[in-house]
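Review form for a predicted model. The reviewer records the input and the model, then writes brief findings.
Reviewer: anonymous (R2)
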Amino acid sequence: MGLGKTEAALYAAYQMLANGQASGIYFALPTQLTSNKIYERFNDFLNQVLAEDCSHRSLLLHANAWLFDTELGEEGRPGGAWFNQSKRGLLAPFAVGTIDQALMAAMNVKHGFVRAFGLVGKVVILDEIHTYDAYTSTLLDALVSLLRELHCTIIILSATLNQERRQGILNRSVTSTGYPLITASQNDEHTAREVSVSAGTNSSVEIVIKSDESVAIEQVLLCAEQGQQILWIENTVKEAQQRYLDIAARAADLGVACCLLHSRFTANDRQQIEDKWVSLFGKAGWKERHKQGRILVGTQVLEQSLDIDADFMVSRFAPTDMLLQRLGRLWRHSETPRCSEATPQAWVLAPALGAAIEAPEANFGASAYVYSPYVLCRSLEVWQNMKHIDLPKDIRSLIERTYVSRTEQNTSMSRWLRELEEGNRHRKGLNTLRQLARIGLSEGGNTLPESKAQTRYSESESYEVLLLKAMTRNRAGDTATLTLLNGVQIELPLQRHKLTKPEWRQRTAELMRQIVNVPQGDNPNALSMETLKSFGLGHCFYLGNPDWPEDESILRVALVDASDRLQGVEHNDIHDKHTLEYRDDLGYRVIKNRGNR
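Model under review:
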């Protein structure tokens, strides 16, 4: 982590372009946040390697890319093509996006051939490859096979890929235990070439395993008061919100800045947080580090593709590769100015191994629903007695010790392994996920529309919730006025012809930045499509099947009152069991009412 994999990949891609062996670059990342950040670095790269009069600049390709102020030309025209630009955008010589856009080139998806054609002859860089589950990994293997046939150069980046997975992707035998390591193979080669790379000086990080988070809170406040820059990473949004509430008020009394970052903010609020705090914890913030201590609390969004650098870290226990990714944000750069009291130390919040093996859900808590209990227990075996870790020297051994296949003698571990492979009532097993992914690849079935093609598997649906301050109609009843959370008002005529396509696009983009994605069960109660259409929202959002106008809309809408609570549009109950709220510092929050579980 932090050794420059991205720059190395771009250098290799540049050499292919300069030698006439490639026609462009597609840079694929796991999430929208990471693709947004790489987009900035990628454009800097293009500015250096392309001639000044070259018109080719990169496109940002993911489901919400059109919200950003990027030049999409005809690809960004209204009428639905905003969402299709990701398909045709792969035809552009240079593009950055999520892995999903490339995966559909290998799937049995309508117009998938357009995506495949767009990737022909390009350098395709697949970053953070370790993050994908069995479902997406199966699709990814098919994509790699397709890209080989299309004579693409494929560059796969990961700091924490185990040997078995590396071998599976290459379909070649690998043996090297070097780290860092470059593994390469050409189509006409039956063996892989493995080249160890010097990592320079190892850095030692002290590891402290703690079970009591209250002790960790006191330590974090003490270090922050000294002026240290601190990351606290949780595995769920709810836990991250609670840690922020535990810390923020006390931090303010000490003159320490505190912030929260996770996936359930509106795009507007999240971008403001990212712009400020990713900069403060990155190289751009070096001149600011000495001014005060800071605590950034967050979820897994902090562990991938972000060049942030903390002096001290607390992390909820997670699988080994995730923990290593998080540690890659600790003392990341030797030149970073630091508080004199800071030492490279990470506290890991974990239960006792014996108790965790016997009852993972009780002891790992919510983490056992995010990650496989078997993988958590295997990881805890490796970390339970850890006192320090040398990076990057120890990474390979930690990964292999966690993930090497073995026969389990312990009855409980055998059960968790069986559940990992076969699933349980909460989640599907690896075997089922792989089979489901193969269905999406099969050419024998019906060709799926892109909206139905799953590149990620989720056990439950998620809902888009539009958050507003107010919704009203004028006296004539032909125009609705929507008040955004920042007080800005948007007028939506109920007749579409009243606005031009660019005007509708501008209004839709503003409203989309008020959307929060929430899991099933945390979403507000639905309104009928007719109610939402009566506020002009049918011109900006897909509301559902028009043949069933009385059916519930897939879009949820809620009003945020002066006390941050969510209300129904018609002052109806917003949720059957819980109180919902939204704050610009906490995000979307579910408060369980007493008596409801």
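Findings: The CA atoms of residues 229 and 294 lie 5 Å apart.
Further findings: Residues 69-87 have pLDDT under 50 and may be disordered.
Recommendation: see findings above.
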